[in-house]
Amino acid sequence: MNKVERKILLNPGPSTTTDTVKYAQVVPDICPREKEFGEVMASLGRDLVKIVHGGDDYAAVLFCGSGTICIDIALNSLLDKDKKALVVQNGSYSERACEVLRAYGMPHIELKQPIDTTPDLAAIEEALRKNDDIGYIYMTHHETGSGLLNPIREVGALAHRYGAFFITDTTSSYAMIPINVYEDNVDFCMASAQKGIMGMTGLSYVIGRKDIIERSKDFPVRSYYCNLYMQYHYIETTGQMHFTPPVQTIYAARQALAEYFEEGEDRKWERHQRVMRAIHQGEEELGLREMLKREVQSSLVSAVRYPDDPNWDFDKIHDYCYERGFTIYPGKIEKKGTFRLCALGAIDEQDIRDFWQVFTEAVKHYGVQIPARYDD
Ligand SMILES: *Cc1c(COP(=O)(O)O)cnc(C)c1O
């Protein structure tokens, strides 16, 4: 087997993958309507549920698309008529959820919260108390734009206390931060193969309670293609996705899951945290400052403020690092200059040490002051 040139991706997914996952895509041609392929998908679905410790009462519903397809599907499929959605809006991904609800013209409450700190549970509870028609609460687990980690367990408990479902976008935490759907009060979560499981792009999944999916059969159908019950029912009755699945990506995902279980939930999470400690260490050595306090961070994304240095030019630093095999990523925080360093993917602390060496060369090359200069 040839080795593929290794790139260190510090962007928030797609992430660095192993060669074994890359090559798992190279399979004999197969028609995905064959029973053999159905078995691959069925076992994949069971493994995806297992990652979040769900039992037979949870199902993984597969879709062909990027992660946003799951946001769209969960939001549009799980709201009964006469019900409203409640979105905790504290970052670019929960803002995206609101855009989806607006696009469908669905009734919703956009509960704006600060983007750099944990949301106010009392405000969420008040919204629930004032509105007795909330169908579900929607919150992003890990706001990937800033690195903010949201309290799903507490918000899930609140949703349940007021008779609402709890949907959380775990795209950038699933298979990294340990999640237990029962203990964390999660009715629905979602992810995409190119993030936590370290697979390829094009396969995404909503994982959730079968009883609610069954009930959603009678909810308004707002999309022909992006409907949760439609896909669930089709997979349950035929063992196939309704429309053409991403065949090769599914083979890669199967290999990625084998590697996930081999590494183990705790060891993998420990590795991501070790990578983030190495990221933080380099920031400290260079005097780089972050947007968020450490206590509210996910340990998966660090949003670094641009130094107030006339020689700082993100694009130039990016290109210098990129040419040497390291990809860094611009920030997603409105009007504030930040870039992101992420601990996703098949990388370890030595990769980060190598990265900091190149990054340091880059800032020196362009005459950026070390330690980094900030005017506040
Ligand atoms: C990456 C990500 C998504 C999906 O983004 P796509 O570009 O559609 O794959 C959704 N939510 C969160 C929190 C993410 O990090």
Describe this structure as you would to a colleague.
The chain has helices at residues 19-23, 35-51, 68-77, 92-103, 121-130, 152-161, 210-215, 228-238, 247-263, 265-286, 314-323, 349-365; strands spanning 8-9, 58-64, 84-89, 108-112, 134-140, 142-143, 148-149, 165-169, 188-192, 203-209, 301-305, 326-327, 329-330, 338-342. With 376 residues, it is an alpha/beta fold. The chain has a four-stranded parallel sheet, with helices on both faces. Strands 2-10-9 form a three-stranded antiparallel sheet, with helices on both faces. The longest helix has 22 residues, at 265-286. Bound molecules: pyridoxal-5'-phosphate. Pyridoxal-5'-phosphate (PLP) binds at residues 12-13, 66-68, 93, 140, 144, 169, 171-172, 192.
N- to C-terminal distance: 53 Å
Mean pLDDT: 96
| Bound small-molecule species | pyridoxal-5'-phosphate
Unreliable residue stretches: none
How much β-strand is present in the residues?
A: 15-25%
Q: If helices are DSSP runs of H or I spanning 4 or more residues, what is the number of helices?
A: 12
